[in-house]
Amino acid sequence: MKAPIHKNVESPVRSVTVHELREHHFDPNWHFHPHYQLFTVLEGTGKRLIGDSIQTFEPGDTVFLGPDIPHLWRSDPAYFGGNSDLFTHGVVLYFQEDFLGKDFFEKPEMLHLKQLLIDSKRGVEYKGALRDHIREELLELRNAEGFHGILRLLTLLDKLAHGDAGSPIASYGYVNTYKVSETERMQKVHNYVLQHFAQEIRLGDVASLAGMSEAAFCRYFKARSNKTFIDFVNEIRVGHACKLLLEDQWTIAQIAYDSGFDSLSNFNRNFKRYIGHTPREYKGNYD
C-alpha cells in the first residue's frame, strides 16, 4: 500500500481532535497535513524527523507543529520485530487556524497567540516544567467536551505563548517544498536509510531506488531537504550514537561501528561537527 505524505486527520464532528495512540510502533510514514499539532510521547523510542531536523526521541518528547511541516516519529527497529512487550503510547491534538472563525487569531488580544502560531511553522520543542504541563493538559483534553475543551485548549496555548521553554526545531527559513506526487519516492528513501544506516549506504543504490541518476538525486534531495543526502545519513547515524552513548553499555569504538561509521576518526570528526562536542565530552556531560 502506498503511504500518502499528505495525511487527513480531520474529525467530521469536532473542530479540535484529540487522539490517544497505542500501537506497537508509531506511524512509520513521513507525512504532513494542514493542521496544527501538539504531540507528546508517553512511551517509545526512536528517530524524530521534523522538517530538516533529525533527533532521537524518548518518553517526554513534546512538540508543537504548524501546518504542512513534514514529520515522522520512526520507532526503533525493535518495535517492528513482533515483540509483544514493546509498544508506543502518545497523545496528539489537532486543530486548524480557523477552528474559531477565520479572523479569530487576527484580533489585537490574540497577538501573543498569533506569534506562537507563526513560531510553530518551524516546529517548537518543549522541555522542563512546561513540557510536563503540556502532557498533563493533553491527557485531560482527551475527555474534555464542548466549550470546556475549547477554553482549556486556549488557556494552554496562551501559556505556551507566554512561556520561554520552547526551542525551534527546523532551521530558520525552512519551507516544505515536497509535493504529494513525490510521496512514494521520498518514502522509499527515508525507509531505506532508517533501516540501513548501520551499514554501508551506496549513493547509486539510493538514487536507483528514487529512479534518478546520482547527480540528479543529490540536487533533488538537497532542494527538498535543505541538506545534502550525506548530511542526512550522518545526522541519523550521529543521533543513534548519542542514544548509545547515554545508555553507557558500549565503548566509543563499538558505538562508532554500530552507528555505521567506517572508522573511529571519521566518527569523532562527524560527531563533533553535528553535536559540537566529541563523543567522550558528550558522554561526560551526562554522567
UniProtKB/TrEMBL annotation:
Alphabetical keyword list:
DNA-binding, Transcription, Transcription regulation
- One family from Pfam that matches here is HTH_18
The cross-references to InterPro entries, in alphabetical order and at most eight, read: Cupin_2, Homeodomain-like_sf, HTH_AraC, HTH_AraC-typ_CS, RmlC-like_jellyroll, RmlC_Cupin_sf, Tscrpt_reg_AraC-type_HTH
- Organism's domain of life? Bacteria
HTH araC/xylS-type domain: which residues? 187-285
UniProt cross-references to Gene3D superfamilies, sorted A to Z? Homeodomain-like (1.10.10.60), Jelly Rolls (2.60.120.10)
Report the transmembrane regions from the record.
Answer: none
Q: Does the keyword Ribosomal protein apply?
A: no
Which GO molecular function annotation, any one, does this entry have?
Answer: DNA-binding transcription factor activity
Q: Which PANTHER family has this protein been placed in?
A: ARAC-FAMILY TRANSCRIPTIONAL REGULATOR, TRANSCRIPTIONAL REGULATOR MTLR
The protein depicted here goes by the name: Transcriptional regulator, AraC family
The organism's lineage is:
Bacteria, Pseudomonadati, Bacteroidota, Cytophagia, Cytophagales
